[in-house]
Design brief:
This protein is an alpha+beta fold. It is built from eleven helices and eleven strands. β2 and β3 form a beta hairpin. It is elongated. It starts with a strand and ends in a 7-residue tail after the last helix.
C-alpha cells in the first residue's frame, strides 16, 4: 500500500471511484438534486485539472487505486475510499498523509465535511469552524467547515489516527513490536506478521500500520514483503528503490522479474514469532 501523486492516466479510475462513493455513501443522505451537484463538482475535468496541478494523490493497493485525496494549500478536498475497501484504515492513512503535506507549510488543515464524513473528521481531531447552508439546484444543502491545528507540538497525523481507537493502537503496537523483532538479514511477510499478532486475516491492516509507521528509522518496515517475496512497488518512505537498497545493505539481495523486485523467501524468510 502506498500514497503517491496521481498521473493523468489515473484520472478515469479516480473519477469512477468518486462516483461510486457518492452513490453509496451520499445517496441515503442527500436528495437527488444535491447528489447531482456533487457529481458536477467532482467532474472528470476537475479531477484532471487537480492532477495537472500536482494536488491530487491516490492510495494504491496491489496496483489498484482504492482511495484518493486532494491537497490544495491548507485545504483537504476529495478524500474518498472505495466502498469495498472502507473500514480498513485507508481513510486515516490518506488523512494523515494530507496533514503531513500541509504541515510543511501551514499551521492548520481545513476541509468542508459532508454529513457522512463528520464523525470521521471529529474522531481525528477536527473541530467545527463554520456551519454553511446554500441553495443548489433548487434544494438546500448544509455542510460544516472543519479545522485542525497542525502547529509544532500539536497532536496530528499518524499519532492522532492511532490514538483515536484503543483497539487500533494496541494492534499497531503489536505490529511494530513484531517488526522490530525481524533480524537484520531477514524478511517477513504481511500475513506472517498478522498471524504473529493473533490476527491472521489482518494483512491489510498490517500494511496500513507500517504505512503510518511513526519512526521508520527505528521500526524496520523495509524488512516486510508480500507473500511472494515482492518488494513494495513504491516504498512508503522514499521511492521504489529505497526498500531494495536498504535490504541489500543488510545482505538481502533481490532479483527483478516483470518490472518488480523479489526476495528469496526460502533463503531469507524469517521463521520467528509465528503463531
Amino acid at each position: 500500500m502506498c500514497v503517491e501523486r496521481a498521473v493523468r492516466s489515473d484520472g478515469e479510475a479516480v473519477f469512477s471511484l468518486v462516483r461510486e462513493c457518492i452513490r453509496v455513501n451520499y445517496a441515503p443522505v442527500y436528495v437527488p438534486e444535491i447528489i447531482a451537484s456533487f457529481h458536477e463538482f467532482h467532474s472528470l475535468q476537475s479531477i484532471l485539472s487537480d492532477i495537472n496541478n500536482g494536488m491530487l494523490y491516490v492510495l494504491r493497493e496491489e496496483e489498484k487505486i482504492v482511495g484518493t485525496v486532494t491537497v490544495d494549500g491548507p485545504h483537504i478536498r476529495r478524500l474518498f475510499v472505495l466502498p469495498a475497501a472502507q473500514h480498513c484504515g485507508y481513510g486515516s492513512a490518506l488523512l494523515s498523509f494530507a496533514e503531513g503535506k500541509i504541515a510543511q507549510n501551514f499551521a492548520y488543515a481545513e476541509l468542508d465535511a459532508s454529513i457522512p464524513g463528520e464523525p470521521f473528521y471529529e474522531k481525528h481531531g477536527y473541530s467545527v469552524r463554520e456551519e454553511c447552508r446554500e441553495e443548489i439546484n433548487g434544494a438546500f444543502v448544509q455542510w460544516k467547515v472543519y479545522r485542525k491545528d497542525l502547529s509544532p507540538g500539536s497532536d496530528f497525523g499518524p499519532s492522532a489516527a492511532v490514538s483515536a481507537s484503543p483497539s487500533a493502537e494496541n494492534f499497531f503496537a503489536s505490529v511494530y513490536a513484531v517488526v522490530r523483532s525481524i533480524p537484520r538479514g531477514s524478511v517477513a511477510t504481511y500475513g506472517q506478521i498478522a498471524r504473529s499478532c493473533g490476527r491472521p486475516r489482518a494483512s491489510r491492516a498490517v500494511g496500513y500500520a507500517l504505512h503510518v509507521n511513526p519512526t521508520p528509522g527505528e521500526i524496520p518496515c523495509h524488512r516486510v514483503v508480500n507473500r511472494e517475496g515482492r518488494l513494495a512497488p513504491a516504498f512508503a518512505f522514499g521511492g521504489p528503490s529505497v526498500q531494495r537498497d536498504l535490504l541489500a545493505a543488510e545482505g538481502v539481495p533481490s532479483v527483478e522479474r516483470d518490472g518488480c523486485f523479489y526476495v528469496d523467501l526460502a533463503r531469507y524468510g524469517w521463521s520467528g514469532r509465528q503463531k
